[in-house]
Every structure is written in C-alpha cells, then in structure tokens.
Amino acid sequence: MIKHESIETNAGLLIILTMIVISIGGLVEIVPLFFINDTVEDVEGVRPYTALELRGRDIYQREGCYLCHSQMIRPFRDEDLRYGHYSLAAESQYDHPFQWGSKRTGPDLARVGKKYSDEWHVAHLVNPRSVVPQSVMPNYPWLLEHELDYSDVQDRMRALKMAGVPYSETQDEYDRNVAQFGKVVADKLDILNAEENLMSQALANDFDGQRSRITEMDALVAYLQVLGTMVDFTKYNEGYFAEFR
C-alpha cells in the first residue's frame, strides 16, 4: 500500500496518478455524449417555443427568475406529490440553456403552465404578496409598463436554429416541421413570419389584459403558461409513483 506521504513527495508518481484521476473524470463526462440519442425519450407533444414564448423566456432569464425557481422535478415521492410527474429529458431538448436550476427559494415551475389564470400571473408578477401573502419575491411592475421589443426575434430564432432547434426558413425545413409537429405548429416555427406570429398570439390571448398593447408581461406569461403543458402526462401515470396517487 502506497502511503499518502510517498505520493506527495514523489513528483513523478503524483503527476501520473493525477492524470489517471483526470482521465477517469473526463471519460465520465464525455462517454455519455456518444449515447445522447438513447437518453432523450421520444415524447409526443414537445415542440420548440413560439416567437412570443421565446421572448418571454428571454425576459425570464433577464430578470433572473432561474435564481429562485428550478424547472426540474426530481424522481422523488415528495416532489411527485407536490409538483407532478418527474421531468423528462425530452422536455428540455429545445432549451438553450436549460432552466433546471439547483435552488428553490420559490416553487419549481416545470408544471406551472395552466395551473393559474393569466390574471393571477399578472397580479403575482406586479405584486406577489397580493396573491401569496408570505411570498419573498420582488415586484416586477415594469413588465406591464414596458412594450415588448421583438425587432430582433428572427435573429434570436436563427441563433437557436444554429444550436439545433428546428425553426424553419426554407420550404424543406417547413415541410419537415409539418411532418413532425403538424401544420398549426409548423406555421408558428417559421422564422420569416415570426413577428406576425408573435403579434397574432399576443393579441389573440391578451395575456396581460391590455389588448391594445403587447408588453413584456404578455411574453413572460405566455412562456409561463406553456411550461409543462406540451406532454400529456396522463399517459405516464404508470410511472414510479403511481401507487401513491
């Protein structure tokens, strides 16, 4: 057995052992990448964000919401009972960067979509204590005051397209999205019509209650309302914790 002191005083041995440890750590990080296609489930319903939802996600990151809210439900009984089905890898396949998080000052938001009304979200963001008296979340009233800047939304979508998100610019890409997601969704993933699609979704849903304006609140609420709604989790009720339901 080699004593610890012998390793520390023998520079050559220390270097060799250090390289072995680094190599093992590197393999643990690199090897799984070669099997990434096997680790992401083929889940029906998951799609890229629309232009409005994407701008909402940008605002979510800008305001630092990820610092207090995670978007990953762990496969533990208490989390399943509180938040719902544990998060699937496929749900984050179009997130760059992902919003899993590691700290929860507030609740996990992976399944917050459609859990509350648009009006609730607006009130909560303007003054959290108006709906959750014990909340320590800061106020975000400017989201309702600032008009949404979407002049660069096409560039944002093109950047994500370079990262592998299937937004379309050509007819072939559009046809591929029609085959994968259906025509209704494919139309919303068209980069060339991004601004028109954004305005149409914002005005049709009126997320912020101000139909005459498209505000940052519209975008953020649109993003929050889609979280966890793409997958029909009734198909997964036979999962790890079905016996506790």
TrEMBL record:
Gene3D superfamilies assigned: 6.10.250.2250, Cytochrome c-like domain
Gene Ontology terms, MF aspect: electron transfer activity; heme binding; metal ion binding
Transmembrane segments: 12-35
Domain called Cytochrome c: residue spans: 51-228
Alphabetized UniProt keyword annotations: Heme, Iron, Membrane, Metal-binding, Transmembrane, Transmembrane helix
Protein name: Cytochrome c oxidase cbb3-type subunit 2
